[in-house]
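User: Run a structure prediction on this.
Assistant: Running it now.
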Amino acid sequence: MPIALCRVDDRLVHGQVVVGWGAPLRVDLIVLVDDAVRSNPWEQEIYRMAVPGGVALEFASGAEAAARLRQWATGQDRVFILTGDIATMADLVLAGDGVINRVNLGGLHDVPGRRERLRYLYLSEDEVSQLRRLEAAGIIITAQDVPTATPIAFRELLR
């Protein structure tokens, strides 16, 4: 079963991810890829409370996720891979060597150094550069806050 969605959202596991994306995609497994969360049982427990029954939640470091990408892509479960930042997703895409071919940009909020691209998406110049490199490698990058919204191509965000 292919990976259902690879999304970057700095809020990580929350209602919009679980209900908005997880339900329509009928995901069996959400993989939260974040080194800090992977090593923090207390934080993991908070995220577990947001996930409905019938959906598994797994925590992985970037290295652990990179090592398991092919397994998730070829397994029986519909998998939703979630990172909180572009750098982590870019590392996964490159480590996967063709496993990930699409990236969805969700909520990346305003912090110093970022510029508004959409009402829910702020990017720094470094993040734009990382995304340009992924796009140049053939990765399809779109921004979409909810599944019912029209996906916006990365190139449109640069205007």
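Residues 142 and 154 are 5 Å apart (CA to CA).
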